Amino acid sequence: MIAAMRNDPIVVDLVNRARDGDKAAWDQIVERYATLVWSMCHRHGLSGEDADDVGASVWLRLVEKLDTLHEPAALPGWIATTARRECLHLLRVRKRQIPVGDERFPDTAGPASDEWLLRHERQIALREAFAQLPERCRLLLSMLFSDPPTPYSEISTRLDMPIGGIGPSRLRCLQKLRDLPVIAALLNAPQSTADKG
Amino acid sequence: MAENFNDDERLLAELGEAVRASSEVPARFVELGRAAFTWRTIDAELAALAYDSAASELVAETRAEPAELRALTFVASRLTIEIEVAPDALLGQLVPPQQGSVELHGRDGVANTTRADDVGWFAIRPLPSGLFRLRVRPDGGSAVVTEWAML
Known about the structure:
Chain A is mainly α. Chain A is built from 11 helices and no strands.
């Protein structure tokens, strides 16, 4: 169902390089997916040392799994599944309550988790695209999507840009974002069944 | 879903959500992931977790009888490592019984070293917490490391 991102050539390349011992590629894998693992901990009510144990466990298992990961493109799914299993295992061995909401996410093959994973993969693509934008675009967009949004008068002062230029600049920066290959791939990807309804 | 990206407002909102989600992740959490790569090359056979009593209990609180000690079994081709988690120590048994060195590794490195006696028994004190693995080198044999396990 989420074939869209599963063929992500970036992931395949990173996994292959990490397999060959490339530490920089490994770091990029961790940086890409740490938010997904963290978010999984968060939804199981885990933070601090508990979350660190789950995180370490996922990465240590992945280090050993690298050589036998037959489909590198399935990495995001593997990470999500492993993170969830480690969260539940930690709750069990430390005899904590399993969050009531967890039955809404009964197994990682279900549609609910597919949507969750898909959303995270979109976020990963967005962060990657954002990092590739020129600095001025990043500054402008950061001020626009901050919560609450920065007033135009302040943006104008900080970027030394006329207020009337903010709207057109915003348009240009967002278009730059869309044109980046990582986002263009998402736009052209076949939609999942959930999107067609 | 992805066609929402054609809408400026939605794209900006989703971008904000994505960037904020990542800024909420502590640097420490990312760092321990990077550090895991140092385990990439291990010159020892991996002993797989074959049994974990905690994995077979559904919800511990619902059990009426007193909780038994948690037991774990790791299996390599020529060595089995049985562990019980006592209140103050990890108690272990090498099968077949034999002497050897036993290292406890936490996620930050070697935490403790001990010996298995002539009947293959060992104890690791204090009880570790969190993630751990054992590296066992039987005298005259080759080293084995267990899979990671969580306490």
